[in-house]
Amino acid sequence: MEKRENSKRRRSVRVLFFLILLYNLIPVCLLVSAVSYAMLWGSGWQPKFKIAAYDTYVQFASPIYCDRIGYDSVTSNPKVYFYNIKMDGSVSGWFWVSAKNCNVTITKFFKDNKLEFTVAGSGSGTISLYSPKKPQYVTVDGVESNSWSYDENAKVLTLTLSLSNHKIIVSFSPVTEAFSTFRTLWSSFLILIAFTFSASLLIKVANGELSIMEFIWGFVGVILGTSILFILLDVVEAI
Q1: Burial of 44 (C-beta count, 10 Å sphere; 0-12/13-18/19+)
Q2: Which of 117, 121, 151 minimizes the C-alpha distance to 134?
Q3: How does DSSP assign 161-209, residue by residue?
Q4: Given this model, what pLDDT does residue 144 score?
Q5: Domain residue extents for the chain
Q6: 10 or 130: whose pLDDT is higher?
Q7: Considering the chain, what is the average pLDDT of its residues?
Q8: Is residue 32 over pLDDT 50?
Q9: Cys-Cys with 65: which of 37, 56, 59, 189 at CB 3.0–4.6 Å?
Q10: CB atoms within 10 A of CB 190
Q11: Is the four-CA dihedral 194, 195, 196, 199 of positive or negative sign?
Q12: Element (DSSP H or E) covering residue 108
């Protein structure tokens, strides 16, 4: 009878260990998928994408990596979408850009807290793009400009310019990059703590110090605790 109980306990421990391992591998798998890109555009040439609705284009001064490229319409798209795009900097998720009555060349892409691009056209032009954060300020040819607006809800930056040829620099708070580094390190620390605590509970089950149900409740507590901390990180980043 005792051998059967021990065998049952060992089998339960193996199953629970597998679940713990799976739970702790999920963030690693997500991290790998976030830095592995499906497409490279511009190896030896400057990638250029047409905005058919306005007969304009957006191009990048350097090769870009991304997972997907999308359009609202095949023949009259007002925007070009890029998913998980990376040049010298990167944006997770969907980034999009639209240029009306002007052509845009992106020279620095969210690196060192800056987005830099040049515009060429005549008359009045409008550039709209997805921006994960509100800029601190925008300069046009080195002079701070107020010809821009930012929609906090949609996270859309819009610039309206009297055009010829201009260099635009969009500057963001350096706190964004610092917090991103902190978030990465803190997330890794949380995952390590969760794994260590789960492993210690597992050892106690194997030694008979905890029952399976006590372990399950402890494991659920670990999941809830780490989830709440991740949610708090998202809230702080959104402020």
Answers
A1: exposed
A2: 151
A3: EEEEEEEEEEE--THHHHHHHHHHHHHHHHHHHHHHHHHHHHHHHHTTS
A4: 94
A5: 2-33+176-238, 39-173
A6: 130
A7: 79
A8: no
A9: 37
A10: 17
A11: positive
A12: strand 90-111
Distance CA(100)–CA(103), nearest Å, equals: 8
* CA–CA dist 140, 94 (Å, integer): 26
Q: What pLDDT score was predicted for residue 47?
A: 87
Exposure string (b/e) for 92-128, b if CB count within 10 Å is 16 or more? eeebbbbbbbbbbbbbbbbeebbbbbbbebeeebebb
* The overall pTM is greater than 0.90: no
What pLDDT, on the 0 to 100 scale, is given for residue 35?
Answer: 45
Of 86, 209, 117, 101, nearest in space to 160 by CA? 101
- Position 191 pLDDT exceeds 80: no
**DSSP letter, residue 147:** -
Task: Please choose, from the candidates 162, 180, 143, the residue with its C-alpha nearest in 3D space to the C-alpha of residue 34.
Answer: 180
Amino acid at 104: V
For 53-95, how does the pLDDT look when each residue is reduced to its tens digit (9 = 90+)?
Answer: 999 999 999 999 999 998 887 788 999 999 989 998 888 889 9
In contact, 99 and 58? CB cutoff 8 Å = yes
Cα distances (Å, whole numbers) of residue 50 to 74, 99, 146: 11, 10, 28
Q: Span 39-173: which CATH code?
A: 2.60.220
- Are 197 and 223 in contact by the 8 Å Cβ rule? The answer is no
d(CA 13, CA 60): 53
Tell me the residue type at 171: S
